[in-house]
């Protein structure tokens, strides 16, 4: 019977890769700043600055930023990364994709969201209402992101969820400046109220129609504010 060779040193089990963890952390942080409008069209995202912030090398930062480029959130330049400049036609196409995907996805999610998730959506709506009363754009953006993130938890198709997330984020980036208008803020808070009622009642028809109306209103408001109604 063969015995184990005592001279063979067993290699230790490989641990989780720290660079991968760092890359994901950087990705999530920059994405969050983009979603909340903290990175605007005049800002440059520089890998060495983020590396200093995270106290890490530039490699995981570059990987995170290139991932955001691939997803359409950023564009690489000779002097760092910037948000993409979208034409009116780009924005129309984004809203068209959203109309094709979000109403059906929201209607399906209404049946599977838990009471805890619905409570979280209620809290996000109340935050949105406070933001409207205070005319606090940053708080309203935060509430909108939270509300959408929760109902997207009910979308079981991960590819569908990721696509909805990216396209909604892209329109949020270009619409961030329009939220200074009281009319835009009222559309958001009123639309969220109708959506919340539909989700709480698990009413797929209401959620579908309210989502459709929410997207239509957002598109109309965007082009009214930009002056491009063609």
What do you see in this structure?
This protein is mostly helical and 230 residues long. It has two domains: 65 residues, Winged helix-like DNA-binding domain superfamily/Winged helix DNA-binding domain (Arc Repressor Mutant, subunit A, Orthogonal Bundle), CATH 1.10.10.10; 139 residues, GntR ligand-binding domain-like (Four Helix Bundle (Hemerythrin (Met), subunit A)). It contains nine helices and two strands; from the N terminus they run H-H-H-E-E-H-H-H-H-H-H. Strands 1-2 form a two-stranded antiparallel sheet. About 4% of the residues have low confidence. It comes from Caballeronia sordidicola (Burkholderia sordidicola). One of its GO terms (molecular function) is DNA binding. InterPro entries: GntR_C, TF_FadR/GntR_C, Tscrpt_reg_HTH_GntR, WH-like_DNA-bd_sf, WH_DNA-bd_sf.
Indicate the topology:
Elements: H1 18-35, H2 47-54, H3 58-70, E1 75-77, E2 80-82, H4 88-109, H5 115-134, H6 137-152, H7 158-175, H8 182-200, H9 204-226
Antiparallel strand pairs: 1-2
Helix pairs in contact: 1-3, 2-3, 4-7, 4-9, 5-6, 5-8, 6-8, 8-9
Q: State the end-to-end CA separation.
A: 84 Å
Structural class: mainly alpha
- How many helices in DSSP terms? 9
Helix percentage range = 55-70%
CATH superfamily of the largest domain: GntR ligand-binding domain-like
What proportion strand?
under 5%
The CATH class of the largest domain is identified as Mainly Alpha
Q: How many structural domains in the coordinates?
A: 2
CATH architecture of the largest domain: Up-down Bundle
Q: Mean pLDDT, as a whole number?
A: 86
CATH topology of the largest domain: Four Helix Bundle (Hemerythrin (Met), subunit A)
Q: Runs with pLDDT <50, length 5+?
A: 8-17
Largest sheet: 2 strands, antiparallel
- Strand adjacency order, main sheet: 1-2
> Could you give the order of the helices and strands?
HHHEEHHHHHH
